[in-house]
Structure formats: C-alpha cells, structure tokens
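Risk register update: the risk of archive-format incompatibility is retired. Evidence:
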Amino acid sequence: MMRDARTLRLSSVYLALVSILVPGARSQNNNTADSAAIAGTVCDSQNHPIADAAVLLESNDHAHKFAAHSDSQGRYRFEPVPSGTYAVHASRSGYRDTSSGPIVIRAETKSIDLDLPLENAAGNGKDNLSSVEFSNETQFNVAGVTDPSNLGGHGSDVALRTKESLAKDTASLKNSESHQPKTNPHSPDPADSHERLAEIAETEGRPLDAVHEYQRAAELQPTEPHLFAWGADLLLHRAFEPAIEVFSRGHHLYPESVRMLLGLSVATYDQGAGDQGKKLLLEACDLNPPDPTPYLFLGKLQETEKIEIPAWTKRFQRFAGLHPENASAHYYYAVALDKHDPASEKNFSLIESELKTAVQLDPQFGDAYTQLGILYSQRGDVPAAISAFQKAIAIAPLADEAHYRLAQIYGHLGQADQTTREIELFRQASEQNKNDAERERHKIQQFVYTLRSPNPTAPPPAPPH
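Archived output:
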C-alpha cells in the first residue's frame, strides 16, 4: 500500500536519527567467522549515484541494526554483519525511501543496490508501471523487479545459476499438463487471444508488453493456466513480489495444482525467504507424490546446500522408489545420502549403487560420473576416481568441478604437469560457464531497464559499466 508524504518524511527522519544514535553504526571489532560484509550503491531511477543517503540494515528480530551514509559515488558498506535475515532501507531528502528484504545473509560479501525514485516522480510511490485490478478483489502491481546481482541465498555463483535455472524451469511449466482447461489456439476467446499476444511479445523481445498481456488474460478469465502463465512470466523477469501475489492467489483458487505451488515456492525462495520457499517446495512434493516435477526442482536446489536436510533425503528416496527408471531420481538420492552422512561406511555401497544405476539409465549423465569420482576419492580409490572424472569430462568438457578434482588428485600424486594442465582447464571451463551465465543475466537485465523506461515500448538503454 502506498504511504502518504507525512509517513515518508517521518521514515526519512527515523533513518537519519538511527545513523547517529544506533551503536551498530559505529565501527565494530567483534569480527567472527560467521560474519558478512554487505555493500552496494544507492542510485536514482536513472542509475545516477545518490550521495549522503541514509542507509539502515536491520535484522528481522531487531537484534542487530547498522546505519551509514552513502559516499559521493553512492556507495555504502556494513562490516562485520552477523549471519541472519535482514532488511535494508534507504532514504534521502527529495526522494522516496526504499527497502529490500527479507535478505538471508551468511558468511559472505553480498551486493545490495538500492533505487531511490524522486519524490515528485510519476507513479504510486514504488515506481510501478502498472497497477491493475484483479477479480475485483486484489490489486497487483508490476513492481519489485530485482537487480540480477541481488538474489538472496548464499551469494555464490552456483546459487545464482541455480536460481535462474529454477525460474526458467518454472516458466517452462506453462506448457505442461494441467487439470484445468488449456488455451485453445483456435479459440476466439479474448483471454486466449491476450495470452497468444503475450507469447508473441516475449518472442519479439517485448517483456513488459508480455507481462501486461498475460495479466489481461488472467483478469478476463482467471483459470489455472492463465494465472500460472502470468505468475511464471513475472518470475522469469524477477518481479518477485507480484509473482508471489499471483501464485498465492492461484494456489488459493486451485489448491490441487502442483505447478502453482511450485511457482509460489520458487518465487518465495528467489525473493529471499529461503526457509519458507523450501517448506513450500516440500509441500509441492507431497501434494501429488508420483509427480516427478517437484523432486527435480528440489534436486536443483540441493546444489546450493552444504548439508542435507533429512526431510529432503526422504523425499528423494521416495522419488527413486516411485520412479526407478528415472536417472535423476537415483542421482539426487545418492547426493542426498552423501551430504547427510558422508563419512558413513554403511552408506558407501548404497550411494555407489544409486550413482551406477543413474549412469546405466543415462550413460551421458556427466554429473553422476563426477559424483562417483568424488565418492571414490573420499575412499582413497585413486584409479577409480580418475576414471570417473575423465568420463565426466568426456561427456561435458566444461565440467569444471571434474577438472578441479583431477588437479587435486594429480597434485597429491606429485604429477606437476598434469596438475597444471587440469588447473588451466578448470579455469577455462569456469570462465566459460560464468560467461554463459552472464549472458543469461544480461537478457534479464534488459527487462529491468525496460521497466524503468517512461516509454515501455522504447528500446531499453544500455546497462551501465
């Protein structure tokens, strides 16, 4: 809901006072192993840096508060920051204040950029480009589009790629089977026509037009397919908050729709509420246990976790039992077992068996060979480990982890030339993977700049250096 001018002024005064009075704003010496550094830039709607903006970082439990002012380049930094869930707020006279959160912070350096629109700028207080009525009950806004560098979670490149992959996979479910009536491409129904226009707009690189068309289709006919298509398109372009609203409404109307609950879980997770997103994903697995789709999403999320949660292991065990013909089911179950109890001798045979089943079902499953190599390395079976890593690389030359593990093995064996070669191949593979991910992020950035443009149909400006 839009706040009035008096509330905004009071909020600005509060942030300014906190920056002076809050002890957390002063330099701290209690740097611990689990502390983090939070940095970013405060800019206006045209990406110009804003100096002397008051920035407040506060934990959800109100136990930790930090305050600072942006420098001449709009930059701010908090360090050290204890791990936890936070919200960050910024304000400055002449601008509307802004906030971002909840943000999960662990031992990392996280970048959080903040946009402060001018106080007299057109809009409703949140720089929304669309405020529309849905089913005469709820207001939905195309807002909250998040900068690609600020995705919450662990902050690692693996986590970043995983979140992008989850969003794309969710969008791909628009064409999946559903218990609701599908869009008929030959139907004269106006809602179907708007959805077809949305698909055309996406193909032609007009994402904002696509969002509006999906939205119009859902307004005219709030069926499960139309609602899901709208939410999935918002999620794909990182409009997390409205995506959550759409998926929440869709889940309420169609509680038996697995993909609607999946969309809600991914949007919630990507928005920064990781624990709630994971909980919803487990609910999606349980909604229709034979459906393999939620388990595949859970498997991708597993890549970002350092330890395995017992509840996840049980779901993957069920997945493998219900779908013994699915290579991914056996692979994810093996990874879950290894993360849950990596030192257990009794688990070794089961993990090995599950991974071997995965590569028997899919001989091109490079990740399964990499995991076999890791398993053999843990047990000290060097020849078997080398063989598994080499198979993974033969399948996927850009298997950076396989190259890295081989370099470790050759280093322990004293084979300097082989070690140097694998390190270089690892560097090249990592760089290529990073470039590929950057190209995908750049595509989504274009949508962000389109939203900021006063004329949504105009070409988006080039991103800043």
